[in-house]
């Protein structure tokens, strides 16, 4: 039973790796220069959009982190204020 599972796992792994290599070979031969230039422009636009989205996501994450840090500091100050002896 253990050998059978090992064989099935090895076959699944080999199949997934081979399909990935076939997928890379699919776009290797360009057919028309106009189409390839249009594709490269589209790819450039997509890359720019992805870069902008990534930058926006990074900024939002940073803003959220800073807001959380500020709230934590305010909470610390409040705790210090509560712990301070009253005169």
Helices and strands, with pairings:
Elements: H1 2-25, H2 33-83
Would you mind describing this structure in some detail?
The chain is mainly alpha-helical and 87 residues long. The chain has two helices and no strands. It has helices spanning 2-25, 33-83. The model has no long low-confidence stretch (mean pLDDT 81).
In DSSP terms, counting alpha (H) and pi (I) runs of 4 or more, how many helices?
A: 2
Unreliable sequence segments: none
- Computed structural class: mainly alpha
The biggest sheet, with number of strands, parallel, antiparallel or mixed sense and barrel status, is: none
Radius of gyration: 28 Å
Q: What global shape is seen? A: flat
Taken as a percent bin, the fraction of beta residues is: under 5%
In a few lines, what is going on in this structure?
With 87 residues, the protein is an all-alpha fold. The protein is built from two helices and no strands.
